[in-house]
Specification:
By secondary structure, the chain is of the alpha/beta class. It has a single domain, classed as Rossmann fold, CATH 3.40.50. The protein is about 45% helix and about 15% strand. The chain is built from 6 helices and 5 strands, in the order E-H-E-H-E-H-E-H-E-H-H. It has a 5-stranded parallel β-sheet, sandwiched between helices. Strand 2, helix 2 and strand 3 form a beta-alpha-beta unit. It is elongated. It binds 4'-phosphopantetheine (PNS). 4'-phosphopantetheine (PNS) binds next to strand 1 and helix 4.
Length: about 180
């Protein structure tokens, strides 16, 4: 008599700063959600950096954009990525590779993570060509200098960028008056 064993679900963690989420990230998350049963978008809680969006804001944005995809989960993590991935029972870490310039940093991280946890594989995915030059840093820079970013980030992120810019200007005007 043969018993049917339940197929273990394949979980991947997609870690990053996501300040803010770009269409390049969205593309990688969509690709990952087709490859894995569950993909956990894990936002790094990094006290050292001065982010534009708080961790809560970044999590809310990603949750909103992927509200219709039940196998995309959003979470935060701190400490070692491999410890977090182990806790989530993930078998893979997903990273996007845009260009050769990404390679060295990603190669170092993948090999260090493998040394720390040999059971977790890093899987690299390439975003669609039109997103290969986008980074969160460039988006913030050009937006704050007045350039349009539509088509490069989800519409929700564009709205949040406008709101953030307005609140920064408001704060600046108040501090000048004081
Ligand atoms: O989107 P980013 O900022 O390039 O993501 C970098 C991230 C979050 C993947 C990396 O900084 C990270 O994994 N940090 C957690 C601490 C850790 O495990 N460091 C060792 C990695 S080899």
């Amino acid at each position: 008599m043969s018993t049917t064993q339940p197929t273990p679900s394949r979980v991947a963690v997609y870690p990053g700063t996501f300040d803010p989420l770009t269409n390049g990230h969205v593309d990688i998350i969509q690709r990952g959600s087709h490859l894995f049963d569950e993909i956990v978008v894990a936002v790094l809680v990094n006290a050292e950096k001065a982010p534009l969006f708080s961790v809560d804001e970044r999590v809310a944005i990603i949750q909103d954009v992927f509200a219709e995809r039940p196998n995309v989960q959003v979470d935060t993590f701190d400490g070692l990525l491999v410890d977090y991935a182990r806790r989530k029972r993930a078998t893979a870490i997903v990273r996007g590779l845009r260009a050769v310039s990404d390679f060295e940093y990603e190669f170092q991280m993948a090999l260090m993570n493998r040394r720390l946890e040999a059971e977790i594989e890093t899987v690299f995915m390439m975003p669609a060509e039109q997103y290969t030059y986008i980074s969160s840093r460039l988006i913030k820079e050009v937006f704050m200098l007045g350039a349009p970013v539509s088509g490069l980030v989800p519409p929700l992120v564009e709205d949040r960028l406008h709101a953030k810019q307005a609140s920064l200007r408001h704060g600046l005007a108040h501090s000048r008056k004081a």
